[in-house]
# Entry
Amino acid sequence: MVNRNALRTVAVAGVIAATATLASPASANTYMVGTCGSGYTLQEATPTSTASAAATGAGIIFLYYSSATGKNCAILRRDVDFIAAEGMGITLRVDNGQSATDSSTLYRSFAGPVYLPARGHCVSVSAWTRGFWKDSAYLSDTNTGGIAWSHCG
# Structure
């Protein structure tokens, strides 16, 4: 005979697992395309925003670093509920004056990756996404964001 408490425990565990799967963070709701390649470690991920609403998340900026090569890599991925009808762009800067940009009015899912060597230097990232949210197609929106000078070393 099956123990009822054991069945309850299994049922509760199943509900918790299903809830955890459904309640995923905003960054998991981005298109997972475009990568930096092997050997890169995520340093920071931050959402873009509008002037009227901070951190709305039409896009997520990802900054990676490879300790083997000393290079940083940046990618902008859009949220699946945002239509980037007017494009996307990302710029990676190093405090020694170097910069790398990837942007186009034709980009719809991601911009980047952009790479720069930055061992011993600080980096910053800026990005933009233009378009509209699926539920408000009549309201054009520009989201911008960035990562301030940081990740020095």
